[in-house]
TrEMBL record:
<keyword id="KW-0238">DNA-binding</keyword>
<feature type="region of interest" description="Disordered">
    <location>
        <begin position="1"/>
        <end position="25"/>
    </location>
</feature>
<dbReference type="InterPro" id="IPR050109">
    <property type="entry name" value="HTH-type_TetR-like_transc_reg"/>
</dbReference>
<keyword id="KW-0805">Transcription regulation</keyword>
<dbReference type="Pfam" id="PF00440">
    <property type="entry name" value="TetR_N"/>
</dbReference>
<dbReference type="GO" id="GO:0000976">
    <property type="term" value="F:transcription cis-regulatory region binding"/>
</dbReference>
<dbReference type="InterPro" id="IPR011075">
    <property type="entry name" value="TetR_C"/>
</dbReference>
<dbReference type="Pfam" id="PF16859">
    <property type="entry name" value="TetR_C_11"/>
</dbReference>
<dbReference type="InterPro" id="IPR036271">
    <property type="entry name" value="Tet_transcr_reg_TetR-rel_C_sf"/>
</dbReference>
<protein>
    <submittedName>
        <fullName>TetR family transcriptional regulator</fullName>
    </submittedName>
</protein>
<keyword id="KW-0804">Transcription</keyword>
<feature type="compositionally biased region" description="Gly residues">
    <location>
        <begin position="1"/>
        <end position="18"/>
    </location>
</feature>
<dbReference type="InterPro" id="IPR009057">
    <property type="entry name" value="Homeodomain-like_sf"/>
</dbReference>
<dbReference type="GO" id="GO:0003700">
    <property type="term" value="F:DNA-binding transcription factor activity"/>
</dbReference>
<dbReference type="InterPro" id="IPR001647">
    <property type="entry name" value="HTH_TetR"/>
</dbReference>
<feature type="DNA-binding region" description="H-T-H motif">
    <location>
        <begin position="49"/>
        <end position="68"/>
    </location>
</feature>
<feature type="domain" description="HTH tetR-type">
    <location>
        <begin position="25"/>
        <end position="86"/>
    </location>
</feature>
Length: 217
């Protein structure tokens, strides 16, 4: 039956279930929920040990190590599980799609679990580069690429100017929500904020009309 499962690179999850011992979804769920409960109690990731997780989940340490090779791999799965699914974009216009994207960011900021994990990840970023790398690849980068696709379609459709740097535009749309969610946690994330952000930024990126075009003289 073998001992502790070790996948390529040491990641238990990546290597699949141990032979002869099918993975129990209920056990995995209880372990992941155990980590989430600890986070919700305000315990930093750095202080959450495998022993502590095993106690709160009601399992043995060996049960955890059969599924994950260590804390970082477990935490990576916790982050993936805690993230809500991305919403379907209406596709009616660039503006409508951007509002839906930012509304999902707003709701994530308001959601206690997602917010707790996000704050913990940023706090641990310097001490655990691997954790940040996985969070970035699993959560941040896919959403960034999705927003870039929306902006490129808008550029092709003439909704924003052809000379707009879409990478910079993406930062301009997303940054206000991140600042309020992380840097200024006391700031409101009120309904209607996505529309205000999108319309404010679009005012500077939209096609140049005759009225807005400057006289070279």
């Amino acid at each position: 039956m073998g001992g502790v499962e070790q996948g390529p690179g040491g990641a238990g999850r990546g290597g699949g279930a141990a032979r002869g011992r099918p993975r129990s979804e209920a056990v995995e769920r209880s372990i992941i929920e155990g980590v989430m409960r600890l986070l919700e109690e305000g315990i930093p990731l750095a202080e959450i040990s495998i022993e502590r997780v095993a106690r709160i989940a009601g399992v043995g340490k060996a049960t955890i190590y059969r599924r994950w090779s260590g804390r970082e791999e477990l935490f990576c799965d916790v982050m993936r599980t805690a993230e809500p699914p991305d919403p379907e974009l209406p596709g009616t216009s660039m503006r409508d799609d951007l509002i839906v994207v930012l509304e999902s960011h707003r709701r994530r900021g308001l959601a206690n679990r997602s917010s707790t994990i996000m704050h913990n990840v940023y706090a641990q970023m310097k001490t655990s580069p691997k954790l940040w790398k996985v969070y970035h690849a699993a959560v941040i980068e896919p959403r960034r690429l999705k927003t870039l696709d929306v902006l490129r379609r808008g550029q092709e459709n003439g909704e924003i100017r052809a000379d707009v740097d879409v990478e910079l535009a993406n930062d301009l749309f997303v940054a206000p929500m991140l600042v309020r969610a992380i840097v200024r946690p006391e700031a409101d994330l009120e309904e209607g904020l996505p529309e205000r952000i999108v319309d404010t930024v679009l005012a500077g990126l939209g096609p140049t009309t005759p009225e807005r075009r400057r006289d070279p003289e």
